[in-house]
Amino acid sequence: MTQVVLNIFISASLILLIANSFSILYTTVKFFHLAHGAVITAGAYFVFYFSTRLSIPFLTAVPLAILSGALLGVLCEVFVYRQMRKKRRPALACLIASLGLYVVFQNCISLYFGSDAKVFRFGPVEAGHKVLGAHITTTQLITIEVSVLLFFMTGLFLRHTSAGRSIRAIACDQELGEIYGINSNKIIIIVFAIGSAMAATAGILAAIDTNMTPAFGFDLLLYGVVAMVVGGVGSTWSIVAGALLVSASRNFAGYYIDTKWMDAVTYVVLILFLIWKPLGFSGHRLKKINL
Amino acid sequence: MEYILHILIFTCFYILLSQSLNIAAGYTGLISLAHAGFYGIGAYTTAILSTKWGLSFWLNLPLAMLVSGAIALLISLIILRTVEDYFIICTLGIQVVIFSIMNNWTGMTNGPLGIPGIPGIRFLGMALDTRIKFLALLLFFVLIVWGILKNVSRSGFGNTLKAIGEDEIYVQSIGKNVRQYRVISFTIGAILAAIPGGLYAHYVSYIDPASFTVSESIFILSIVIIGGLESLAGSCLSSVFLVMLPEGLRFLGMSNNTAAGVRQIIYGAILVLIMLKGNKRIKG
User: Fold this and answer.
1) Interface pTM (ipTM) of the complex?
2) In angstroms, what separates the C-alpha of A278 from chain B's closest C-alpha?
3) The whole model's pTM is what?
């Protein structure tokens, strides 16, 4: 049982990292950037590429991969979303475009690396540390630390720096922000860079912990999206609640029913939640109309 | 020759799929990523009925349509509480749940191993054992579905659906029950998706969950969007184009896997370009 509780916290921290990276994007640009899933995957594959093909040392490859992931997100913004924003395309069109981008990126990755599962190998498999009779590996410990650290840093960044305040202004009302002299395009690029860098980090951590396939980022992203929607968009702490709820329902489903039903349970939670509380935990209103 | 017929048959499957999605996504504006799920429900219902109870195709198909429609009705009553992008995320969730049931309910669906030994179709005592005969049957279904959808689009009901796609608040204001129309249109789409599902199961005689994944749903939606929402002929043309594309690429010397990947890259890129250029049927 301790192991189950520990597992809930481990997977919740990964989901939190992804939900956090996605929600900073979603609250600013207000559409589902599904190509974010490809950024998660790309982060892991960049590390794989840099460390095995270019034989760059692992600890240098990781920051390089995170930077490349951030660059990928920024490229999406500059070449696709900014052009669509200029033409005032609706959120739905941006979502479909992001789906197209995702398909392109995912297939580029699987064409180049093959669609089989890849693992990072660092010698023999370690048993991990013992905490109250439950096992936790070093990677998982790092995941929890990084996720919590980045969560608080994002919060502090958004509240106490001028760039963070500009991001919140643009998220709140883009036109009004521009009237006050904020360059919204620049701010949105910063948001994409930060969000994508966090997503790439999450992808790398997840890939080290288990393995990676060209599609694994999309599944991870969907858990993050579910956590964000269940938590309620726009509130910082509710994302934590959402991530914990998603992770708890997945792990309890795995423990009491069968691990193969974990995915189905995640989405059943999402759908039940939307019936019960269409606005999520925090109750913030986010849709214009609900006929 | 057999090879060309095989490709034509698959083109027809996708024509049926894209047209059935068109009534929900094109007319009413319900962009759904769960269509491969309903396609799968049709295929699995037919496969289970014919292998476990030995029913004939002509009984299986209406039953499959009924099952798919009933499930769609139930689902749409729930997820149509959400709108626009949240609706898409919900349909994505539904797709994953349906796939997970096909993949994991081993007792009923045989899990990832799939269901083998689905018998062929017999028509008036004659076995449709050659590809050409099967293609004739398929074309017959394509014509029927086309006819139904053409009639629907000309009817008052179809006009209401299109009006909802254009401006739902206006339709609401003239006293139409928007939610009910949406539920009906989503359900009709799912019922029609069971037709290619049933035909597919009998054609390939072996089905497994890998044919009904999220990527398949994205592919069907891409066909509809690339062909033009609300355009039946457009869906037909883009099905032909996207199904034939990997065959063409193979002639350029690409391997099977590469051709499949390159096709996906091409339709993903077309999707982005269409959205960049602007499609007035997609509103937010």
Assistant:
1) 0.88
2) 8
3) 0.89
